[in-house]
Every structure is written in C-alpha cells, then in structure tokens.
Design a protein that fits this description.
The complex is a heterodimer of chains A (164) and B (186). With 164 residues, chain A is mainly α. Chain A has two domains: 3-51, no CATH class; 85-163. In chain A, 76% of the residues lie in helices and 0% in strands. Chain A has helices at residues 3-14, 20-32, 34-51, 60-75, 86-89, 93-115, 118-125, 128-148, 155-163. Chain A starts with a helix and ends with a helix. Chain B has 186 residues and is an all-alpha fold. Chain B has two domains: 1-114, Rna Polymerase Sigma Factor, Chain: A; 117-186, Winged helix-like DNA-binding domain superfamily/Winged helix DNA-binding domain (Arc Repressor Mutant, subunit A), CATH 1.10.10. Chain B is 71% helix and 0% strand. Chain B has helices spanning 6-14, 18-39, 43-59, 71-95, 100-106, 118-129, 132-143, 148-155, 159-178. The termini of chain B are far apart. At the A-B interface, helix 1, helix 3 and helix 4 of A face helix 2, helix 3, helix 6, helix 7 and helix 9 of B.
C-alpha cells in the first residue's frame, strides 16, 4: 500500500466505511510510514475531540417558551391540515392585486401588439425589447416564488429590501 | 412500559397525541440546540433557530415518511435548513447598511460565553471557521453521531459527497487545532 491509497483508507475509516481487509493493510502501512501515522493520529484525535463535545442542556426558560409557542400553534388551524401549494395560498390580498396588475399589463401589451400590422409585429415579437420584457417578468416571478416559499413572505418586504 | 421508537412516536404525534410529541421533544431538544449552536455563532440565536425548527417539525410532522429515512435525519434536515436560512439572513443584513440596527439587536451573548472548558471552546471556534458545507457534515456525523446515510438524507446530498465533506472538514479542523491555519482575528 502506498501513501496515496493509505489516504483513501483514512477517509473510509473516518466515515466508518472501511473494510476489515483495508484496515489490516493500512495498519501494516502505518508501521512503516511515520507521515501517514502522524496524519492518522491527528485525524483520530480531532474526531475524538468532536465526539467529546457535550450537548448543551437547554434551560427551563427554553422549555417554557417552546411550550407557549406550541400552544399557540395548536390553537391555529395550520397543523395536520394538508394544504396544497400552501406558500401560494399564503400570499396576501395585496400580493394578489399586484399579480393581477402584472397579468393585466401583459394582456394589454399583447393586445396592443395585435393591433399593429403583421409586417411590424413579426419582427417585433422577437425584438430585443420583447425578450428583455420577458426576462424581467421571469425574474420578478421567480423572486416572488422564492420569497413566497419563505415563511414570512410579504411582497411589500421585498420592495422595502430592494429600496434599501 | 416499552420504549417507543422515533417512528412509532411520530405516528402517534401525527394523529394528534401530544404526549408522543412531548417525548420526541425531550429526546431531541438538546441535540437540536447543540447542532444550531455549532452552526451559528450566538447562543440566543441558536436557541431561537432550534425552537423554530422544532415547531416546524411539529407543524409538518405529517410530512415525515419513514420509508424515506429516519426521523432523526428528517429533523436535522429541517434544523439545517433553518440554520442556513438564518445565516443567509444575517449575511443579507450585514451587507445591507439599512439592516445594521436590526443586526445589532440580534447580537447577544456569544456561544463561547457558555460554561465550557478551554478545549471545547477551541473546538467550537475551529468548527465555525470551516466552510458551511463541511461544517454541517462534520457536526452531523462526528458530533451528533448520524450515519453517513442519515447525514446524506439530512443535507440532501449523496453519500460520497458526505464522505468527501467529512474528510475535508476533519482535515481542515486538524490544521486549525494544530495552529497551522490561524483562526480569524487571532
């Protein structure tokens, strides 16, 4: 076994996936290679230190606070109720208004284009301004969806953050 | 009375048995706080995130599917996501000058003020110097004792990826603890 292989075995040992044969060959290698031996001992010590880290005991205040929050959650109807697309349904009234305005803008934009003669509309559909507008709409939609998946979503917060 | 497994308790808790969830809470409150404490810098912040994660687990307990993995891995997946969100939020506040006041409000007693011996303080400080993805893998496998499979499930990555992250994380940790890589601010 060379040092390169030994390093792979160390990785397997660290993740507790080394076979018995690998471990035996590796132990033999360690006797002849002080470098690998030093590395292995160092990693074993580090792992042992991590394993000895105590779990902090939570305070009684933590328990009380959690009990209060749990009681509040129990009284609300959100638990055990499987609401599909909960994030979407959680969007408030003002957000729906914004979505409606954006949709109406897209429809108006399309209708206006339909009024134009074909020879003008043809090149316009794939024009830079159209592609840009689409990209902006996609970006806005993705931002809304991303924030909607976060618990405290409010579109006004998104704008407030953007303005800041 | 026989001790119920996590999955049995989850089954009862999902049916509305409050005692079953209390049992799960008692089992996991300390490990969850411990994980959050290893991940985030401040104790109060870690406790808040742990509470959010436990509450989220309660509200979504019906989503747990025992066929997809253990409850422990599922729970730590939630905690990990909450910690990552909080870390991201704090980065956002830090970059955003308008949020400085809010950031200052959340800065409270640093974790290293908790009663702990010097070695543990050093190890915790070194852990926080690791990149996020290495840190979470190391904490889950080496501190919380999750298997590679459970860790992969909690982090949503492959087992080989977990092995790689753990190895690199422990290597980096060893260098920091030996003083080969200085701690920031040291």
């Amino acid at each position: 076994m060379n040092c390169r292989n030994a390093r792979n075995v160390i990785r397997s040992i660290l993740t507790e996936t080394a076979t018995a044969q690998e471990t035996t060959t590796f132990q033999k290698h360690l006797m002849d290679c002080p470098g690998c031996s030093r590395l292995y001992n160092g990693l074993t010590e580090t792992t042992a230190l991590l394993g000895r880290l105590p779990h902090p005991k939570v305070s009684a205040e933590f328990d009380e606070r959690f009990a209060r929050r749990l009681r509040a959650a129990k009284t609300s109807s959100t638990r055990t109720e499987h609401i599909p697309f909960r994030a979407i349904t959680a969007i408030g009234q003002s957000e729906w208004l914004w979505a409606f305005v954006a949709g109406a803008a897209v429809i108006v934009f399309t209708l206006l284009q339909a009024q134009l003669p074909k020879e003008v509309v043809g090149p316009l559909i794939f024009s830079r301004i159209n592609i840009l507008a689409m990209l902006v709409i996609i970006m806005i939609a993705s931002t809304i969806i991303r924030h909607a998946l976060e618990s405290d979503f409010r579109l006004s917060n998104v704008f407030r953050r953007a303005i800041r | 009375m026989a001790v119920l497994t996590d999955e049995e308790l989850v089954y009862h808790a999902a049916k509305g048995d409050a005692a079953a969830f209390d049992n799960l809470y008692e089992r996991y409150k300390n490990p969850v706080v411990s994980f959050a404490r290893g991940y985030l810098e401040y104790r109060n912040l870690a406790e808040d995130v742990a509470q959010d994660a436990l509450l989220s687990a309660y509200l979504r307990i019906w989503q747990f599917d025992p066929e997809r993995g253990s409850f422990r891995a599922w729970l730590f997946g939630i905690v990990h996501n909450q910690c990552r969100q909080e870390a991201r939020r704090r980065r956002w506040l830090w970059w955003n000058t308008a949020g400085t006041e809010e950031l200052e409000k959340t800065i409270e007693i640093p974790s290293h003020c908790w009663p702990d011996n010097d070695t543990n303080i050093g190890v915790r400080a070194a852990l926080r110097c690791l990149p996020e993805k290495h840190r979470s893998a190391v904490i889950l496998t080496k501190v919380q004792g999750l298997s590679i499979e459970e860790c992969a499930q909690a982090l949503g990555i492959t087992q080989n990826n977990v092995k790689q992250r753990v190895f690199r994380g422990v290597m980096a940790l060893r260098k920091i603890l030996k003083g080969e890589t200085p701690l920031p601010g040291a």
